[in-house]
Structures are given as structure tokens and as C-alpha cells.
Amino acid sequence: MRRVSCPKLQPALWGRAQGLSPCSHGMEGSMTSRLTDAISGILDRHGIENGALETAVPGLRLIRTYGVVPPRHMTYRPSLCLIAQAAKRVMVGDSTLTYGHMQSLVITVEVPVLSEIIDATPEKPFIGATLALDPDIILDVVTRMDRAKLPGGPAGLGLVVEEVDERIAAAMIRLIELVEQPEAVEILHPGVMREITYWLMTGRAAANVTRMVLPDGPPQRIAVAIHHLRDHFDAPLSVGDLANLAGMSPSAFHQHFKALTSMSPLQYQKHLRLLDARRRMLTEGERAGSAAFSVGYESVSQFSREYARMFGDPPHRETKRARMKLSGARSGSIAVAEVI
Fold this sequence. Notes:
Largest sheet: 6 strands, antiparallel
Shape: globular
Order of helices and strands: EHHEEEEEEEEEHEHHHHHHHHHH
Number of helices: 13
Number of strands: 11
Distance between the termini: 21 Å
Mean pLDDT: 87
Helix content: 40-55%
Strand order of the largest sheet: 2-3-10-5-8-11
Radius of gyration: 20 Å
């Protein structure tokens, strides 16, 4: 398994390596405290001790958990996942990424992952936030920047671990503060989002963020195929048809798809099918056989085997356990295990 763990560089050293204006150690501590307090304060005032809050600020979710959360399968969408305290481990295909205190995961492709919260305790809980990336704002920022200074090079994995510097932290705090200023969201939200996007364009994730919106590049072409696969995952898979949709040869398509998602198109489809089957059984009460056929399986026994391989238990046992966890989530919150 390929590990893509970001080293814990000192902020000043990392900033110089990226040509950024680094924070002093005192400023880093102050910004960390401000970010932690901003997230915790809102969760406290919404009565959420251990869970996640979908806020009224578009695309912003706040999370706190007082302990580790075991690995859970889910689909990540283009977003900025920021950690103020504790750490997470994310496995996508054959790659593993670990990130923690004042780091973020910048996701620029829709991809199934296995995610877990680590190093969280009752004394030092996991505290973080996720923010959906807005392609329209990214395109606006990219078109305003000097094209000669935009990052190039071959496309790689669509998930990048990024240090959170003072500028992104400050902008995130302002965005979080809008949760309790609903009358200001419509006016101030676009500007803060544009600022966050701009600072992302100066860091390690710049190339990935840029490729999200540049036409005719491999990531954009693969994204078209991914959207089709997401909408038609219950149909028989034809790599040739997906390659034609992306405007690539089958071999080039497979190569770029694997580079971006760390899995093959067939593995990607299997993850989508099993995740949707699980959703159907959990939220709609479908039986395993019905869910299997609904997502495109022709054999219930094959479905059960692959389900147990992915989730650790056969469908009836795993969904029963998951329902018990979901029923324990407090009103107004989302179970942490479903959003990490």
C-alpha cells in the first residue's frame, strides 16, 4: 500500500519552502487556539458534544469527537478538510494519507475512501471543519491569476495534504463566525471563499485545484467519466464507453483514472454500488437481496461476499450495528462515523 503521509514541518520552514509568509510560533499557537475555540464554541451553543453540525454557511460542516472513530467507508467530494486538533487517516485505493494538527486534506476529485479519526481523547478531542470547494469560485480565481504562474506538471492523486498557514486559518475563522451571523452570509461568504481559494492556489494543492476547472486536461476529462459512473453505477461497466466519454484511449483513460483516484474504474464502481446498497438498507429499510439488485448485482451471494469484505460483516449484521450507532446521535447533529 502506498503511503502519502505529509511530514510535520515547522510552519516557518514550510512557508519558506513554498514562498509564503510564515507564522511565528506564538502566532501559530494563537491561531490554533482561535480556530479551536471558534469551532468548539459554535458546537457548544448548538448543543453538540460529540458529532457534526451542518451549518447554514454553504458547504461548511463542523466536527468534534471525544475519542477515536474506527475506519468507515464513504465518498469524499471536492472539499477542504481542516484539522485543528487530533488527526485522521484516509485510505483511498492503494494510497494512505495521514494528517493532523493544523493540516488539511485538499480533495479535488469525487472518490470513495476509508476514513478514520485517530489520536483523539476525551481530554484532547478531534476538532475540525470541512468546506466544499466551489468550482465557479475556483474558475473565477484562476482566470484572474497570471496564467504563466499557474502550476503545471503531470496530474497526480486528487487528494493532497496541506499545511494550514495563518492566512487560511484566519479566513476559515471568519467563515465559521458567519454561522452566527446569518444576515451577513449572502454578502460576505463569496469573498471569504474567494480568499480561501486564492491561498490554496499558493500551496502544495495548487496544481490539483487549478486542474479542477481547466478544460480538456486529464483531471477534467476523468471528472466527466466519474460523474457518469456516479449516475449510472448500477449499469454494466464498459471502460471503453467511459474512455470515449472522456475523449481518451482505453489505456490512457485507465492510467489517468488510476493516477487520480488510486483505484481502477471497476474498483470505483464496486465501492459506489456497495455504499449505495448500505444506504438503502440503513435509511430505506431494504433487504439485502433487494438492495443488491437495485445497485446492479446479479448475484446476492456475490454481493454479500463483497459487502463483508468491504464493511467487515455480512449486510444484516453490519447494518444492524450501524443503526444502533446512528440512533445514538444527538438531535441536531450527524453521527461522526458517517461524516469523517
